[in-house]
Amino acid sequence: MSSNDAATRNVEAFHAGRLVARRLKASGIDTVFTLSGGHLFSIYDGCRSEGIRLIDTRHEQTAAFAAEGWSKVTRQPGVAALTAGPGVTNGMSAMAAAQQNSSPLLVLGGRAPAQRWGMGSLQEIDHVPFVAPLTRFAATAPSAEAVSGLVDDALRATVGAPSGVAFVDFPMDYVFSVAPDDARPGALTDLPAPIPPDGNALEGAAALLAAAQRPVIMAGTNVWWGHAEAALLALAERQRIPVLMNGMARGTVPADHPLAFSRARSKALAEADVAVVVGVPMDFRLGFGKVFGAETQLIVADRAQPDRQHPRPIAAGLYGDLSAALTALGERAGPGRDAWIADLRAVETSARDGEHAELADDRSPLHPMRVYAELAPLLD
Q1: How many angstroms separate the Cα of 67 from the Cα of each of 5, 56, 103?
Q2: What is the percent of the chain with per-residue pLDDT over 90, rounded to a whole number?
């Protein structure tokens, strides 16, 4: 459609790169990481017009990893714009990492013109078959008019449960051509609401936890993505449950909190009678379930059903809204568990005392812990 046609229909017209930027801006995205490439110039121009900051890196892999880092800090989709062909393939390691980490990442790819596809255009590669196994959503824009809706679909995919990576590439002839602004107002309004956990499973889990003498919580990355850190801390404090953390759950319960443990992990997981495994799969990080005692009852809570079978039987599965699940589990106060907590604290303290000795170790050759001890005051 020409600019004159758009004017006749009384619809403001932009090139489609501006439409990409408008959808990003409407969804609260204000930063895009990239390495300058000609296939993306219309998107850059759109970002400049919409007030979106462009951070130009030295390598596409850097751009994509930086975008994932941005998402981890902000809990919003990180966005990387990668030029066609080797630009996109250079970003694939970061896409794979983000998908494994459940990091919401949107990758915008340049693409050779559709009108000359198959004729040997510059950096002509069909990206979607490459990236599809690494993403939750991968598509090529079929027209300039479809750009806004496709960006919205990709953003929905990044923030679903589980969150992850979405990829859209834009043929140059479409993204540089004029398309009517479809005037989508504001942010996405049809994002799926978190699903409440099953009531029967929740009742069973609550009863199991209330009767436990040696409970433990093993918290992982999806506590962060599920905005469940406040509910996690409230559950631990109300029920008096020791908490172990890995991945991005680290810090959700402060390291100096009396219920936060790390060095006593092996003992806690092996001797617990009930373990709440929240936001972390039973993969290699948990010894494929073997870190728990043979008699340990497992309550698994996560944002979505797992994509593979648990490696050992569980007593209850709470899938959906993590904050709601943890809040419900924490509604009743637990029994006194002071002896269990003191037992774990003794192990924790002993291990840390040993580390303090290594921090002051004067042996030669130098112990790596001594190097850390010298650097730590400078890093604080």
Answers
A1: 38, 12, 10
A2: 76
